[in-house]
Amino acid sequence: MTPKIVFDNVTRRFDLKGGSFLALDRFSLDVADGEFVTVVGPSGCGKSTALNIAAGLLKASGGEVTVDGKPVEGPGPERGMIFQQYALFPWLSVRDNVEFGLRIKGEPPARRREIAERFIDLVGLGQFADALPKTLSGGMKQRCAIARAYAVDPVILLMDEPFGALDALTRVQLQDQLLETWSRERRTVMFITHDVDEAVYLANRVVVMAAGPGRLQEIIEVDLPYPRTEEIRLSPEFTAIRNRVWHAVYHQQPAQSHG
Ligand SMILES: Nc1ncnc2c1ncn2[C@@H]1O[C@H](COP(=O)(O)OP(=O)(O)OP(=O)(O)O)[C@@H](O)[C@H]1O
């Protein structure tokens, strides 16, 4: 089967005074349709750079990203992006935030409302549909951002540390909610995190990156069944995979020099 997203030797340099900085060096990865891939690695290893190139927010200096075989040339409605900072419109209610993308898509009002309600319920914000973002907790805002991203029906979700700013309990709840939504509304997900447990708990595969320059280090299969549960999280099998990922992230060899 053709992969959904292909990173083919993607390189990104940033211009600096007196030269350039290699942020991502020949990064290659295939993400299958419906797959949940998490990306971990030390700060500065190019995780966001890679994701932003796939989102079409940043251009590659070399190589390319394709989605369904077509080169990414800019943002597109089939790719939804969720950031750590919730990026909600503060003057719009939860419902209007979720409806926003549908409005741009040209959905008629009744249909917008119906879709928005479904996703607001799905993330457990049914009672807060009329609330403004400033009255919500961080976790609720992030659930609203997830509902908004899902509502426009992107086949791909690109998530950059979406739970990074949340407390541990809310984080675990949102992980379960995201997996539940993912299993119902099957999407291809690429999810950046600094949290090794989160990376293993969510993923089919964990992509470990290395810094200096940013590159692919190792891909680790997570051979654990879905639905993921607390039992799985506490199982020796989970711990074994977590330890492998931990080792790959925290005991990296320096890059081999290449001309
Ligand atoms: N616009 C830019 N100009 C110059 N350098 C940049 C720019 N954006 C990113 N970089 C550099 O590229 C490298 C990779 O950045 P990136 O944000 O992709 O890393 P990351 O792995 O997502 O890091 P973190 O985990 O800290 O968020 C970093 O060293 C960063 O300083």
From TrEMBL:
Keywords: ATP-binding, Nucleotide-binding, Transport. It comes from the Bacteria. Pfam families: ABC_tran. GO terms for molecular function: ATP binding; ATP hydrolysis activity. CDD domains: ABC_NrtD_SsuB_transporters. Residues 5-232 form the ABC transporter domain. Belongs to the ABC transporter superfamily. This is ATP-binding protein.
